[in-house]
Protein backbone atom coordinates (compact mmCIF):
# COMPACT_ATOMS: atom_id res chain seq x y z
CA UNK A 1 0.00 0.00 0.00
CA UNK A 2 2.84 2.31 0.92
CA UNK A 3 4.62 1.40 -2.33
CA UNK A 4 1.51 2.19 -4.37
CA UNK A 5 1.19 5.54 -2.59
CA UNK A 6 4.81 6.40 -3.31
CA UNK A 7 4.42 5.52 -7.00
CA UNK A 8 1.29 7.66 -7.29
CA UNK A 9 3.06 10.48 -5.46
CA UNK A 10 6.09 10.22 -7.81
CA UNK A 11 3.93 10.32 -10.97
CA UNK A 12 1.99 13.27 -9.56
CA UNK A 13 5.22 15.16 -8.83
CA UNK A 14 6.58 14.49 -12.35
CA UNK A 15 3.28 15.64 -13.88
CA UNK A 16 3.38 18.89 -11.86
CA UNK A 17 7.00 19.58 -12.83
CA UNK A 18 6.31 18.98 -16.51
CA UNK A 19 3.23 21.19 -16.41
CA UNK A 20 5.21 23.98 -14.78
CA UNK A 21 7.96 23.59 -17.33
CA UNK A 22 5.52 23.87 -20.25
CA UNK A 23 3.83 26.91 -18.74
CA UNK A 24 7.18 28.58 -18.12
CA UNK A 25 8.23 28.07 -21.74
CA UNK A 26 4.96 29.49 -23.02
CA UNK A 27 5.18 32.49 -20.73
CA UNK A 28 8.83 33.14 -21.55
CA UNK A 29 9.74 32.53 -17.87
CA UNK A 30 12.33 30.20 -16.28
CA UNK A 31 13.35 27.37 -18.68
CA UNK A 32 15.86 25.71 -16.41
CA UNK A 33 14.34 22.26 -16.87
CA UNK A 34 14.58 22.52 -20.67
CA UNK A 35 18.13 23.82 -20.36
CA UNK A 36 19.03 20.94 -18.10
CA UNK A 37 17.60 18.40 -20.56
CA UNK A 38 19.56 20.05 -23.37
CA UNK A 39 22.72 19.94 -21.23
CA UNK A 40 22.29 16.23 -20.60
CA UNK A 41 21.15 15.13 -24.06
CA UNK A 42 23.31 17.52 -26.07
CA UNK A 43 22.12 20.15 -28.64
CA UNK A 44 18.96 19.71 -30.64
CA UNK A 45 19.28 17.74 -33.91
CA UNK A 46 18.09 20.75 -35.91
CA UNK A 47 20.84 22.85 -34.36
CA UNK A 48 23.43 20.26 -35.37
CA UNK A 49 22.01 20.11 -38.91
CA UNK A 50 22.04 23.88 -39.23
CA UNK A 51 25.61 24.06 -37.98
CA UNK A 52 26.72 21.37 -40.43
CA UNK A 53 24.86 23.09 -43.26
CA UNK A 54 26.47 26.43 -42.47
CA UNK A 55 29.89 24.81 -42.30
CA UNK A 56 29.33 23.09 -45.66
CA UNK A 57 28.23 26.35 -47.28
CA UNK A 58 31.30 28.06 -45.85
CA UNK A 59 33.58 25.36 -47.32
CA UNK A 60 31.88 25.61 -50.72
CA UNK A 61 32.21 29.40 -50.71
CA UNK A 62 35.88 29.17 -49.78
CA UNK A 63 36.46 26.57 -52.50
CA UNK A 64 34.86 28.83 -55.10
CA UNK A 65 36.60 31.97 -53.93
CA UNK A 66 40.08 30.47 -53.62
CA UNK A 67 40.58 29.65 -57.35
CA UNK A 68 39.29 33.10 -58.31
CA UNK A 69 41.80 34.74 -56.00
CA UNK A 70 44.57 32.49 -57.28
CA UNK A 71 43.58 33.23 -60.88
CA UNK A 72 43.66 36.99 -60.25
CA UNK A 73 47.04 36.67 -58.60
CA UNK A 74 48.36 34.61 -61.50
CA UNK A 75 47.08 37.21 -63.97
CA UNK A 76 48.75 40.03 -62.05
CA UNK A 77 52.02 38.08 -61.89
CA UNK A 78 51.85 37.29 -65.62
CA UNK A 79 51.13 40.96 -66.40
CA UNK A 80 54.08 42.12 -64.30
CA UNK A 81 56.35 39.59 -66.02
CA UNK A 82 55.17 40.73 -69.47
CA UNK A 83 55.66 44.40 -68.59
CA UNK A 84 59.20 43.69 -67.40
CA UNK A 85 60.00 41.89 -70.65
CA UNK A 86 58.61 44.78 -72.71
CA UNK A 87 60.56 47.32 -70.66
CA UNK A 88 63.74 45.27 -71.16
CA UNK A 89 63.23 45.16 -74.94
CA UNK A 90 62.53 48.92 -75.17
CA UNK A 91 65.57 49.78 -73.04
CA UNK A 92 67.81 48.01 -75.57
CA UNK A 93 66.29 49.72 -78.63
CA UNK A 94 67.86 52.61 -80.45
CA UNK A 95 65.94 55.82 -81.11
CA UNK A 96 65.64 54.83 -84.78
CA UNK A 97 64.14 51.47 -83.87
CA UNK A 98 61.60 53.06 -81.53
CA UNK A 99 60.50 55.49 -84.23
CA UNK A 100 60.30 52.72 -86.85
CA UNK A 101 57.96 50.77 -84.57
CA UNK A 102 55.39 53.55 -85.01
CA UNK A 103 55.13 52.94 -88.76
CA UNK A 104 52.69 50.61 -90.51
CA UNK A 105 53.86 50.52 -94.13
CA UNK A 106 52.89 48.82 -97.34
CA UNK A 107 54.30 45.32 -97.62
CA UNK A 108 56.79 45.01 -100.52
CA UNK A 109 55.99 42.28 -103.05
CA UNK A 110 59.61 41.22 -103.04
CA UNK A 111 62.34 41.11 -100.38
CA UNK A 112 59.82 41.94 -97.61
CA UNK A 113 61.83 40.05 -94.99
CA UNK A 114 64.99 42.02 -95.84
CA UNK A 115 63.07 45.29 -95.49
CA UNK A 116 61.66 44.18 -92.14
CA UNK A 117 65.12 43.28 -90.89
CA UNK A 118 66.72 46.52 -92.05
CA UNK A 119 64.14 49.13 -91.08
CA UNK A 120 62.48 47.49 -88.06
CA UNK A 121 58.98 48.71 -88.99
CA UNK A 122 56.10 48.07 -86.59
CA UNK A 123 54.08 46.36 -89.29
CA UNK A 124 53.20 45.74 -92.93
CA UNK A 125 49.88 46.30 -94.71
CA UNK A 126 49.15 43.82 -97.48
CA UNK A 127 47.10 44.73 -100.55
CA UNK A 128 45.39 42.69 -103.28
CA UNK A 129 48.59 42.46 -105.32
CA UNK A 130 50.25 40.60 -102.45
CA UNK A 131 47.67 37.80 -102.79
CA UNK A 132 47.28 37.62 -106.56
CA UNK A 133 48.22 34.26 -108.13
CA UNK A 134 49.14 32.84 -104.73
CA UNK A 135 47.78 30.14 -102.43
CA UNK A 136 47.06 30.21 -98.73
CA UNK A 137 50.29 28.27 -98.09
CA UNK A 138 52.27 30.80 -100.12
CA UNK A 139 51.02 33.68 -97.99
CA UNK A 140 51.53 31.85 -94.72
CA UNK A 141 55.11 30.97 -95.63
CA UNK A 142 55.88 34.54 -96.71
CA UNK A 143 54.56 35.97 -93.44
CA UNK A 144 56.45 33.35 -91.40
CA UNK A 145 59.69 34.43 -93.11
CA UNK A 146 58.92 38.11 -92.45
CA UNK A 147 58.24 37.47 -88.77
CA UNK A 148 61.40 35.41 -88.43
CA UNK A 149 63.43 38.32 -89.82
CA UNK A 150 61.96 40.83 -87.38
CA UNK A 151 63.42 41.16 -83.91
CA UNK A 152 59.98 42.27 -82.63
CA UNK A 153 56.82 40.46 -83.88
CA UNK A 154 55.20 42.61 -86.55
CA UNK A 155 51.62 43.64 -87.17
CA UNK A 156 50.54 42.18 -90.51
CA UNK A 157 47.44 44.04 -91.62
CA UNK A 158 44.96 44.01 -94.48
CA UNK A 159 41.77 45.82 -95.54
CA UNK A 160 39.26 42.98 -95.69
CA UNK A 161 36.10 45.02 -95.16
CA UNK A 162 33.80 43.18 -97.51
CA UNK A 163 31.85 44.57 -100.45
CA UNK A 164 33.92 46.89 -102.61
CA UNK A 165 37.08 46.43 -100.52
CA UNK A 166 38.29 42.84 -100.44
CA UNK A 167 42.04 42.29 -100.67
CA UNK A 168 41.90 38.53 -100.10
CA UNK A 169 38.45 37.05 -100.72
CA UNK A 170 38.33 38.46 -104.26
CA UNK A 171 40.54 35.51 -105.16
CA UNK A 172 38.94 32.06 -105.23
CA UNK A 173 42.16 30.55 -103.89
CA UNK A 174 41.12 31.93 -100.51
CA UNK A 175 37.29 31.97 -100.65
CA UNK A 176 34.61 30.82 -103.08
CA UNK A 177 33.14 34.34 -103.23
CA UNK A 178 34.09 37.78 -101.86
CA UNK A 179 32.84 38.80 -98.42
CA UNK A 180 29.72 40.97 -98.56
CA UNK A 181 29.56 44.57 -97.35
CA UNK A 182 28.11 45.43 -93.91
CA UNK A 183 24.98 46.88 -95.54
CA UNK A 184 24.38 43.72 -97.56
CA UNK A 185 24.97 41.47 -94.57
CA UNK A 186 22.61 43.34 -92.28
CA UNK A 187 19.89 43.57 -94.95
CA UNK A 188 20.10 39.83 -95.61
CA UNK A 189 20.44 38.38 -92.12
CA UNK A 190 20.77 41.09 -89.49
CA UNK A 191 23.32 40.71 -86.71
CA UNK A 192 23.29 36.91 -86.94
CA UNK A 193 24.83 37.08 -90.42
CA UNK A 194 27.25 39.80 -89.35
CA UNK A 195 28.40 37.54 -86.50
CA UNK A 196 29.05 34.50 -88.69
CA UNK A 197 30.72 36.67 -91.33
CA UNK A 198 33.07 38.28 -88.79
CA UNK A 199 33.97 34.90 -87.29
CA UNK A 200 34.75 33.39 -90.70
CA UNK A 201 36.76 36.44 -91.76
CA UNK A 202 38.82 36.45 -88.57
CA UNK A 203 39.50 32.73 -88.85
CA UNK A 204 40.69 33.11 -92.45
CA UNK A 205 43.05 36.00 -91.68
CA UNK A 206 44.59 34.29 -88.67
CA UNK A 207 45.13 31.08 -90.63
CA UNK A 208 47.27 33.09 -93.06
CA UNK A 209 49.27 34.78 -90.31
CA UNK A 210 47.48 38.12 -90.62
CA UNK A 211 46.87 39.57 -87.15
CA UNK A 212 45.30 42.93 -88.02
CA UNK A 213 42.19 43.73 -90.05
CA UNK A 214 41.73 47.42 -90.84
CA UNK A 215 37.98 47.08 -90.45
CA UNK A 216 35.13 47.61 -89.72
CA UNK A 217 34.47 50.97 -91.32
CA UNK A 218 33.27 53.42 -88.68
CA UNK A 219 32.16 56.19 -91.04
CA UNK A 220 28.57 57.48 -90.96
CA UNK A 221 27.11 57.93 -94.43
CA UNK A 222 23.53 58.52 -95.51
CA UNK A 223 24.08 59.59 -99.10
CA UNK A 224 24.83 57.29 -102.00
CA UNK A 225 26.98 60.06 -103.44
CA UNK A 226 29.50 59.55 -100.62
CA UNK A 227 32.51 57.47 -101.68
CA UNK A 228 32.30 55.59 -98.38
CA UNK A 229 28.55 54.87 -98.60
CA UNK A 230 28.78 51.29 -99.92
CA UNK A 231 31.58 50.46 -97.49
CA UNK A 232 29.74 51.71 -94.40
CA UNK A 233 27.10 50.09 -92.20
CA UNK A 234 24.45 52.80 -92.51
CA UNK A 235 22.15 54.46 -90.00
CA UNK A 236 22.98 57.15 -87.46
CA UNK A 237 25.84 57.37 -84.96
CA UNK A 238 24.02 55.08 -82.51
CA UNK A 239 23.52 52.34 -85.11
CA UNK A 240 27.09 52.57 -86.35
CA UNK A 241 28.67 52.57 -82.89
CA UNK A 242 26.60 49.53 -81.91
CA UNK A 243 27.67 47.70 -85.07
CA UNK A 244 31.36 48.58 -84.61
CA UNK A 245 31.35 47.50 -80.97
CA UNK A 246 29.68 44.22 -81.89
CA UNK A 247 32.15 43.37 -84.66
CA UNK A 248 35.28 44.41 -82.74
CA UNK A 249 34.19 42.35 -79.74
CA UNK A 250 33.89 39.25 -81.91
CA UNK A 251 37.24 39.94 -83.58
CA UNK A 252 38.95 40.26 -80.21
Explain what this protein looks like in three dimensions.
With 252 residues, the chain is α/β, with parallel strands linked by helices. The chain has 8 helices and 6 strands; from the N terminus they run ααααβαβαβββαβα. It has a 4-stranded parallel beta sheet with strand order 1-2-3-6, with no helix packed on it. The protein has a two-stranded antiparallel sheet with strand order 4-5. Strand 2, helix 6 and strand 3 form a beta-alpha-beta unit. The N terminus is likely disordered.
List the helices and strands and how they pair.
Blueprint: H1 2-27, H2 32-41, H3 45-91, H4 95-100, E1 104-106, H5 112-119, E2 123-126, H6 136-149, E3 155-158, E4 160-162, E5 165-166, H7 182-208, E6 212-213, H8 237-251
Parallel strand pairs: 1-2, 2-3, 3-6
Antiparallel strand pairs: 4-5
Helix pairs in contact: 5-6, 7-8
Give the radius of gyration: 38 Å
Number of strands: 6
Strand portion, in percent?
A: 5-15%
Largest sheet: 4 strands, parallel
**Mean residue pLDDT:** 83
Helical content class: 55-70%
Label this structure with key terms:
disordered N terminus; two-stranded antiparallel sheet; alpha/beta; 252 residues
Provide a quick synopsis of the model:
This protein has eight helices and six strands, in the order H-H-H-H-E-H-E-H-E-E-E-H-E-H. The chain has 252 residues and is an alpha/beta fold.
